């Protein structure tokens, strides 16, 4: 386990990423923008609301920042992970790396963790900004922890898909476009499908039938599930339609857990050629 | 040390390597010669476990590349024909990274890296960014990288390609040192005189097939490549030319320098036949001043082989 987290590929990736000043400029810019949005939100509310900032408004600000942060994760993760292997291939450094004693799993997992480390740093560096909401109340520390947990899980889901695309697709640009397409489908695409399916629910309800599909698709949608952490009522309606009491988190973590494991297993398998001996035909 | 058995690589209907059988013993420097697209790099990539053969197998240090690729990777040092480097690393960090990738401890790396930098004449560049090194220096650094885990076998695909003459000489000297260290080396190059100088044996590959293998002189003998002879006469050029043209084992007689009296011809006989020819010329009263055999180099041998292969193909 120690070798997995302290291995040379991970060490190299982190060292090279943080050697460039661009990484630090990126973090500073992001925090400045997020800070300006938070302070701007407070300023606007204060000016429209006669100089008061209520806990409900603090809650709205928290939701705004959280959804912004989730969008950042969805937008940046494909860019960070969609080229981890293909860019090595394009720079012609991959063959040399593959002839070292590093196992395929070590290379793939190190690449994933090192790419996500930067995004995790950005997200966790924003934690002090979140603390502003505690000044005004309306949000529990558990909600903040849950949102950070979900950011990390979302990064792992999209990151694993990105690493797989980067391993099986030779060109970085195509691997990135593929990862972005899948990430947008899992977020926006599934949300649209959920909405479309919900629009048919009236017919089923009139006939007294249970209608499970909006619940299933909503449970697999990252933004809906993220939102449900703060607004539980959103899933209650879907549960009512489905007609059973079943935690949507089981579907969410079950499906995406399988996506993470499946994508990484396939990437590990595809990184090196499958060496096989076949007899020369006589 | 290195053995390939019926090694074949096909891409659809195209055969890159066909039924290749090589046997390279420990400590041998084996040169692979062939035109572009002959199958040299494909063979090297299969040996480096970067590609699976379609048929057959290969063994390095007794490990089957198809069954124990991880063990094979521990005993080989591979240098591809085209490679990239991590530009943001310093030369020493670059070697540390690969050393760690082979499981070397920090203490082991700190002991071996200065020695390797010394071997490849890059001691003064240990703190330079790889990005700032010249092509020749990058090639040498890549060679040092291939040696970091002290492999028994080196697979070097065109290690001197794209280098200027001075950098080529430096690379050749390093390879000679590696040979002296007892490494088993399989190397390809387009610079045939260099290969001839370094290699114990060579193999000529054409269209994925091994068309000749052995020492340079063995190949010459095996293929019955004719010698080139220059005879110097003090006069009577026409009679001398007629005399040599009349001999069975002599071919392509031509006058090289009319004034001095130099006649060049090919001779496909053995050494004793050559002695008999000289004796016959003396007895025939040809005014001989000199009789010189031109040594054929690897380039000539390669061209002869290619000519024969083309003729057979037609």
Detailed description of the structure:
Chain B: This is ABC-2 type transport system ATP-binding protein. The complex is a heterodimer of chains A (282) and B (314). Chain A has one domain. Chain A has 15 helices and no strands. Chain A is an all-alpha fold and 282 residues long. Chain B is of the alpha/beta class. Chain B has two domains: 213 residues, P-loop containing nucleotide triphosphate hydrolases (Rossmann fold); 70 residues, Lrp/AsnC effector binding domain/regulation of amino acid metabolism (RAM) domain (Alpha-Beta Plaits), CATH 3.30.70.920. In chain B, 39% of the residues lie in helices and 28% in strands. A six-stranded mixed β-sheet of chain B has the order 6-7-8-3-9-10, sandwiched between helices. In chain B, strands 2-1-4-5 form a four-stranded antiparallel β-sheet, with helices on one face. Chain B has a four-stranded antiparallel β-sheet with strand order 12-13-11-14, covered by helices on one side. In chain B, strand 1 and strand 2 form a beta hairpin. Chain B starts with a strand and ends with a helix. The mean pLDDT of chain B is 85. At the A-B interface, helix 2 and helix 6 of A face strand 4, helix 2 and helix 3 of B.
């Amino acid at each position: 386990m120690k070798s997995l987290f302290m291995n040379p590929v991970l060490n190299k990736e982190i060292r090279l990423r943080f050697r460039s000043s661009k990484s630090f400029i990126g973090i500073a810019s992001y925090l400045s923008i997020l800070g300006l949005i938070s302070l701007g939100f407070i300023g606007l509310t204060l000016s429209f609301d006669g100089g008061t900032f209520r806990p409900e408004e603090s809650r709205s600000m928290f939701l705004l920042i959280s959804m912004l942060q989730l969008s950042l994760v969805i937008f940046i993760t494909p860019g960070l992970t969609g080229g981890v292997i293909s860019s090595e291939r394009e720079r012609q450094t991959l063959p040399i790396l593959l002839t070292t004693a590093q196992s395929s799993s070590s290379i793939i997992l190190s690449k994933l963790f090192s790419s996500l480390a930067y995004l995790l740093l950005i997200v966790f560096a924003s934690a002090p900004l979140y603390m502003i909401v505690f000044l005004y109340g309306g949000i529990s520390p558990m909600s903040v922890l849950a949102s950070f947990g979900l950011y990390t899980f979302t990064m792992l889901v999209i990151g694993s898909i990105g690493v797989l695309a980067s391993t099986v697709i030779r060109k970085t640009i195509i691997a990135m476009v593929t990862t972005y397409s899948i990430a947008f489908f899992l977020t926006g695409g599934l949300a649209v499908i959920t909405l479309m399916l919900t629009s048919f629910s009236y017919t089923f309800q009139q006939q007294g039938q249970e209608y499970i599909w909006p619940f299933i698709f909503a449970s697999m949608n990252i933004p809906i599930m993220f939102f449900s952490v703060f607004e539980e009522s959103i899933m209650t309606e879907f549960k009512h339609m489905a007609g059973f009491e079943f935690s949507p988190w089981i579907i969410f973590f079950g499906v995406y857990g399988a996506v993470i494991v499946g994508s990484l297993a396939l990437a590990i398998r595809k990184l090196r050629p499958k060496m096989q001996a076949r007899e020369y035909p006589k | 040390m290195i053995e390939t058995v019926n090694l074949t690589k096909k891409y659809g209907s195209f055969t890159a390597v066909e039924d290749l059988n090589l046997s390279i013993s420990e400590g041998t420097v084996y040169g692979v010669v062939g035109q572009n697209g002959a199958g040299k790099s494909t063979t090297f990539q299969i040996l480096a476990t970067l590609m699976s053969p379609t048929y057959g197998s290969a063994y390095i240090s007794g490990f089957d590349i198809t069954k124990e690729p991880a063990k094979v990777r521990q005993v080989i040092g591979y240098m591809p024909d085209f490679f990239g480097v991590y530009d943001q690393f310093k030369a020493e960090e670059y070697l540390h990274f690969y050393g760690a990738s082979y499981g070397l401890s920090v203490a082991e790396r700190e002991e071996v890296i200065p020695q390797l930098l010394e071997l490849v004449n890059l001691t003064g560049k240990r703190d330079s960014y790889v990005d700032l090194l010249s092509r020749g220096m990058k090639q040498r650094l890549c060679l040092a990288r291939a040696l970091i885990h002290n492999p028994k076998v080196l697979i070097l695909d065109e290690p001197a390609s794209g280098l200027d003459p001075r950098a080529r000489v430096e690379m050749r000297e390093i390879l000679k040192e590696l040979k002296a260290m007892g490494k088993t080396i399989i190397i390809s190059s387009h610079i045939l005189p260099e290969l001839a100088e370094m290699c114990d044996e060579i193999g000529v590959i054409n269209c994925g097939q091994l068309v000749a293998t052995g020492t340079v002189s063995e190949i010459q003998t095996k293929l019955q490549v004719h010698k080139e002879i220059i005879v110097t006469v003090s006069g009577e050029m026409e009679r001398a030319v007629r005399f040599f043209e009349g001999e069975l084992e002599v071919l392509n007689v031509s006058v090289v320098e009319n004034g001095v009296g130099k006649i060049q011809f090919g001779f496909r006989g053995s050494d004793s036949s050559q002695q008999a020819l000289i004796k016959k010329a003396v007895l025939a009263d040809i005014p001989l001043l000199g009789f010189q055999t031109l040594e054929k180099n690897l380039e000539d041998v390669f061209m002869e082989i290619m000519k024969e292969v083309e003729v057979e193909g037609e």
